[in-house]
């Protein structure tokens, strides 16, 4: 018993000794340090604390079997008391830097799939805070700023939060992992990706499934790329099988790219494993301009490399761009690639304002890359303004050099051959040698046709901002039909240069010179461009000058003299040019420029002068423009110091439109070395008007502040129609900031209250308004615009709109309203009508985009009155109701016209993809006046439709009554032959308007009187007008009388047959005269364009006798009768030649030339008349039966008063007054 007690006491003592020893080791700093020193391979420095609570060290390192772990600034804080509750509580685990270096791993057989054990800890773990500044693996940083909070319970590991950065990525993760069975895992992660162009990009991913079996991934990308991701991954299976599907839409790689490079309907599918490879297939569509372009990808990636079976852009047909290649990264990077371009319309994807003159038809290239060297070749076929050409060469090089050892360019009969070498190892260096042979530059520049031959050699380099260059050019030939010579020899480096010979000649133009720089600078350039028109199309004039250089590079001297005469390009002209510039030994410079006779089209800009003087520190500049429309004078002065130019706008004067603006006082102007451009506060004043600006920043990110006060609106009269004037004052404010993120500020214009003046029948009518204001508030993501117009008699117009300027479509929203808006305001701007009245009412909403807005609402017109001017009819008491729904409009309304006429309109229009029209027009007794020929009543019942590009008109038109009176010969009695050409009057070929028509026209149901060309009758008949004005039907002239050769003839038969174009009827007309038992007449048959006339008689007799009965009323008996009949026939032939003689008259400056007959019997004469100017007309008459000639000149003094001087058998000077009744 005693022994047992001693034994128990011994065991207890031993346990206490062990506990006391363990406490001494873990609970003290000395013991903890001793214990750490016993761990093999472990070294600790700067240890503080105790292992049984909290400790930290300056550095901890461990190495064994080639593996080395280094932890800097490790820190551990935990609570041993938690062990009593079977919990391990780690309040803080931290390290500033963790570096792990592993030994090289040898090749080992595939270990197959990984099988995870079931982990069941005897106690739970709580991680309060884990923080690692950076983690490096084999010297490469993998993770930065790792932070973790988690706890391990019986049901698995719970990750409360995990954040880390690495490889430009930001990771935030939370989830749960159960380390048993198939290891179920549920996690959510957000990955911040690198932000292109500063635009945020995030990927949110949900992971679920079993780690031992398969994990399902679902994700959403937002920001830079909006898309979705889904897939499956067997993370522990052999060869890592996986499948991934990515979808996106509307992706554009950079904001500066055109919208045509937006990738739509993106789909990328990858599936497979590491052994057999991952197959990658994808596709997308680019909208293009003029047609979509399809993008497709087919490839395979494995552990050894990647195969690009096809990367293709397809524009339809044979138009494509295709890349095929192979990447191999087993030992070192190697690649083989083939590029095939065939008629690919790249301008669809990158449209330009002006397409380049050269079109690439085919391009094929092959390249092999290995060990940082590449070898390949390319060949291209293209088409230029002058035809097709080819370019081909082998290619070789490495990362610092590119060689084209045998470059061949072939264009028609010409070619260029040679070599090109480029180096990039130390700056840039080049060595080029080309031989030109009969090369025509028009293959690339259409304006330079010709043939050039000769050598072109150049070698040089740019290293450390030091240029070395050698050039030898000796090219001869012809350009633009003129002999051409281009010779230049130059060499040099740094501050030693020699220009041995420069000789450039084309036709009568030449530039010659030479120069050298070696301690001293000397050179001369002679410019003699005697005929600028030989250099370039639409360029004219002459330019001569000389440039002399002297001094040194530090203190250069020079003098430039240029003189030009009658210089013009297209519509821009300079009558005289004089430029004198000089820089002397003291570095004082002067410049004097005088350009006289400046014109732009028909606008005379006047005389421009510029004078400048100064040195490296102080400068002055004066600009002066004296023109009919604008007079401008500006003066600047300032000084340059340490890259900062500080000056002022010393003087400013501007005169235009009756206003004289002057700068009140000099304004500060500076351009600083950091790129900032500032403009100080200033004011421009003209009478009571002022335009004042505050402190302005012009560059970068402009900041503008301007205020306009009391600007007189009547000074804008030169820009308004003659019948419109505006009296009032305009005030405005501009506060605009344009930072990189987008503009912001306020722009407002306020015309306050004023008066609008309209001239009606020579009298001015004043109409006042109360308010007219336009305001826009700008923000980077929104622009708010409002327009407000109100007047007691003019009505109201209000518009409010909001625009988002960020998307390409510029989304728009807003509303508008009209209340009694007077339509007469628009009359001066519609010159084809004399009367325009009515009231507009309505309201609606605005939506869609700025370039394709959508309007929804209703607008009505009441009390409308439109007429006069060029309109053939009038619209009185017009009312219209338009219901607008997006891209369609429903229209209805009616009007009255004249005393009895009335009409109605109904239908709809749409203008989405194409214009579609469906309108019904009905009318009853509508008066139509074609001054001065016709006054008709028309009754239409028509349907007008348009679908796409086809216009369709169907229905019925009645012309029951009216009066047609023509007092002049028609423009053509006999058509000029189709092959006759009047020089200078050629007209461009016009395509006929395609119309689908089905119209029945009924003429003369009541009485339609016709009078003209000596004919009076009543017109009646029926016509059917088909497609493209194809007309079928017949018109009759009833109760007709005809006057010809001084006689009144009876119309026995007059019919017009239509069987084709409406302007080509077939004539069947007989006009007769009865003399006793003889009937003599004139028969007109055939096409109206080329009718055939014949004289006939009953009973039949000779043409001479028939004509005698027709003209004289008796048989021909004497020689005098024969002369009279010959002159009558001559007069008939002369009248038929009106078209040809009219065109000849135009070439002589006589407008509106006409042939006519007047008088009866023996006093009949043929008269030719025309206008020499708007007010001066000429008239010449020749007697048919009597030898009497008359010439008369008439001058229009006023609208109704004429002065006429006539000479013939008698001369006279008469004053005529015209009055219409």
Automatic annotation (TrEMBL):
Keywords: Membrane, Transmembrane, Transmembrane helix. It is found in: Membrane. Residues 900-1221 form the Translocation and assembly module TamB C-terminal domain. Its main location: membrane. It comes from the Bacteria. One of its GO terms (cellular component) is TAM protein secretion complex. One of its GO terms (biological process) is protein secretion. It is a single-pass membrane protein. InterPro entries: TamB_C (IPR007452). Transmembrane segments: none annotated. This is Translocation/assembly module TamB. It comes from Pseudomonas aeruginosa. The lineage of its organism: Bacteria, Pseudomonadati, Pseudomonadota, Gammaproteobacteria, Pseudomonadales.
């Amino acid at each position: 018993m005693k022994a047992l007690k001693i034994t128990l006491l011994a065991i207890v003592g031993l346990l206490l000794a062990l506990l006391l020893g363990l406490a001494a080791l873990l609970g003290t700093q000395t013991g903890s340090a001793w214990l750490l020193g016993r761990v093999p391979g472990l070294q600790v420095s700067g240890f503080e604390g105790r292992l049984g609570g909290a400790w930290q060290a300056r550095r901890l390192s461990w190495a064994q079997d080639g593996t080395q772990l280094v932890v800097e600034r490790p820190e551990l804080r935990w609570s041993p008391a938690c062990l009593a509750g079977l919990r391990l509580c780690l309040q803080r685990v931290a390290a500033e830097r963790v570096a792990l270096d592993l030994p090289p791993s040898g090749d080992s057989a595939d270990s197959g799939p990984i099988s995870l054990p079931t982990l069941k800890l005897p106690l739970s773990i709580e991680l309060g805070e884990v923080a690692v500044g950076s983690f490096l693996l084999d010297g490469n940083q993998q993770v930065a700023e790792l932070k973790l909070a988690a706890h391990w319970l019986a049901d698995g590991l719970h990750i409360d939060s995990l954040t880390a950065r690495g490889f430009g990525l930001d990771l935030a993760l939370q989830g749960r992992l159960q380390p048993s069975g198939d290891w179920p895992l549920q996690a959510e992660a957000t990955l911040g990706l690198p932000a292109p162009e500063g635009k945020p990009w995030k990927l949110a991913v949900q992971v679920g499934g079993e780690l031992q079996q398969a994990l399902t991934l679902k994700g959403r990308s937002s920001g830079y790329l909006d898309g979705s991701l889904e897939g499956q991954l067997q993370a522990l299976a052999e060869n890592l099988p996986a499948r991934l599907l990515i979808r996106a839409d509307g992706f554009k790689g950079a904001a500066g790219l055109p919208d045509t490079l937006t990738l739509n309907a993106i789909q990328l599918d990858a599936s497979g494993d590491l052994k057999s490879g991952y197959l990658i297939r994808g596709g997308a569509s680019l909208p293009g301009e003029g047609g979509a372009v399809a993008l497709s990808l087919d490839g395979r990636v494995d552990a050894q490399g990647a195969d690009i079976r096809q990367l293709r852009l397809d524009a339809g047909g044979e138009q494509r761009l295709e890349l095929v290649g192979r990447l191999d990264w087993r030992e070192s990077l190697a690649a083989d690639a083939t590029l095939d371009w065939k008629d690919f319309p790249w301008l669809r994807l990158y449209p330009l304002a002006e397409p380049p003159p050269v079109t690439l038809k085919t391009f094929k290239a092959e390249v092999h890359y290995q060990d940082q060297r590449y070898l390949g070749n390319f060949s291209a076929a293209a088409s230029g303004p002058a035809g097709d050409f080819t370019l081909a060469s082998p290619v070789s090089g490495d990362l610092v050099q590119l060689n084209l050892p045998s470059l061949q360019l072939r264009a028609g009969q010409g070619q260029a051959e040679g070599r090109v070498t480029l180096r990039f190892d130390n700056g840039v260096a080049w060595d080029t040698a080309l031989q030109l042979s009969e090369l025509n530059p028009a293959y690339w520049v259409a304006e330079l046709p010709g043939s050039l031959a000769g050598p072109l050699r150049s070698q040089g380099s740019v290293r450390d901002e030091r240029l070395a260059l050698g050039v030898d050019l000796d090219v001869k030939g012809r350009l633009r039909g003129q002999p051409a010579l281009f010779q230049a020899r130059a060499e040099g480096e740094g501050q030693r240069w020699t220009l041995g010979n420069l000789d450039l000649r084309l036709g009568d133009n030449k530039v010659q010179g030479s120069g050298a720089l070696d301690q001293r600078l000397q050179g001369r350039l002679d410019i003699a461009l005697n005929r600028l028109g030989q250099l370039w199309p639409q360029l004219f004039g002459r330019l001569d000058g000389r440039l002399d250089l002297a001094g040194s590079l530090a203190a250069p001297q020079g003098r430039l003299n240029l003189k030009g005469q009658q210089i013009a390009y297209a519509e821009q002209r300079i009558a005289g040019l004089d430029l004198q510039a000089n820089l002397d030994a003291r570095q004082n410079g002067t410049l004097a420029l005088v350009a006289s006779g400046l014109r732009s089209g028909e606008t005379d800009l006047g005389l421009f002068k510029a004078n400048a003087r100064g040195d490296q520190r102080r400068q002055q500049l004066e600009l002066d423009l004296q023109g009919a429309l604008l007079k401008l004078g500006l003066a600047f002065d300032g000084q340059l110091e340490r890259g900062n130019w500080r000056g002022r706008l010393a003087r400013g004067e501007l005169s235009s439109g009756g206003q004289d603006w002057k700068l009140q006082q000099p304004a500060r102007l500076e351009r600083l070395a950091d790129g900032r451009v500032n403009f100080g506060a200033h004011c421009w004043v003209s009478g009571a008007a002022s335009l004042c600006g505050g402190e302005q920043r012009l560059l970068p990110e402009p900041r503008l502040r301007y205020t306009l006060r009391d600007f007189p609106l009547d000074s804008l009269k030169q820009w308004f129609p003659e019948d419109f004037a505006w009296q009032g004052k305009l005030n405005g404010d501009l506060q605009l900031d344009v930072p990189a993120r987008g503009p912001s500020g306020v722009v407002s214009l306020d015309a306050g209250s004023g008066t609008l003046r309209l001239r009606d029948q020579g009298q001015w009518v004043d109409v006042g308004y109360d308010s007219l204001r336009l305001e826009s508030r700008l923000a980077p993501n929104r622009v708010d615009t409002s327009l407000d117009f109100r007047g007691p008699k003019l009505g109201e117009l209000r518009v409010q709109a909001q625009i988002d300027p960020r998307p390409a479509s510029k989304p728009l929203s807003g509303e508008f309203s009209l209340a009694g808006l007077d339509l007469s305001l628009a009359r001066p701007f519609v010159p084809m009508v004399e009367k325009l009245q009515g009231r507009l009412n309505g309201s609606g909403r605005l939506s869609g985009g700025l370039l394709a807005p959508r309007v929804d609402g209703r607008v009505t017109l009441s009390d409308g009155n439109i007429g006069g001017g060029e309109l053939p009819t009038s619209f009185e008491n017009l009312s219209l109701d338009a219901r607008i729904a997006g891209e369609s409009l429903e229209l209805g309304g009616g009007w009255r016209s004249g005393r009895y006429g009335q009409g109605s309109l109904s239908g709809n229009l749409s203008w989405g993809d194409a214009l579609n029209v469906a309108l019904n027009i009905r009318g009853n007794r509508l008066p139509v006046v074609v001054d001065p020929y016709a006054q008709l009543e028309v009754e239409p019942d028509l349907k007008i439709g348009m679908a796409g590009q086809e216009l369709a008109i169907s229905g019925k038109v009645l012309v029951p009554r009216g009066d047609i009176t023509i007092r002049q010969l028609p423009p053509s009695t006999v058509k000029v032959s189709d092959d006759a050409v009047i020089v200078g009057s050629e007209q461009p070929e016009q395509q006929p308007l395609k119309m689908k028509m089905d119209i029945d026209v009924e003429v003369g149901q009541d009485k339609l009187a016709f009078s003209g060309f000596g004919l009076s009758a009543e017109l009646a008949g029926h016509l059917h007008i088909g497609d493209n004005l194809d007309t079928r039907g017949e018109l009759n002239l009833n109760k007709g009388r005809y006057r010809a050769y001084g006689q009144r003839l009876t119309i026995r038969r007059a019919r017009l047959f239509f069987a084709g174009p409406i302007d080509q009827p077939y004539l069947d007309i007989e006009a007769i005269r009865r003399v006793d038992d003889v009937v003599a007449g004139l028969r007109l048959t055939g096409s109206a364009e080329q009718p055939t006339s014949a004289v006939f008689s009953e009973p039949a007799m000779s043409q001479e006798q028939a004509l005698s009965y027709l003209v004289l009323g008796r048989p021909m008996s004497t020689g005098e009768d024969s002369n009279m009949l010959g002159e009558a026939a001559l007069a008939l032939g002369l009248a038929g030649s009106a078209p040809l003689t009219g065109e000849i008259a135009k070439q002589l400056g006589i407008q509106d030339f006409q042939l006519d007959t007047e008088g009866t019997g023996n006093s009949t004469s043929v008269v030719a008349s025309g206008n020499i100017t708007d007010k001066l007309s000429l008239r010449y008459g020749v007697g048919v039966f009597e030898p009497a000639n008359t010439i008369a000149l008439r001058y229009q003094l006023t609208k109704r008063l004429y002065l006429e001087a006539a000479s013939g058998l008698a001369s006279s000077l008469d004053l005529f007054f015209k009055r219409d009744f």
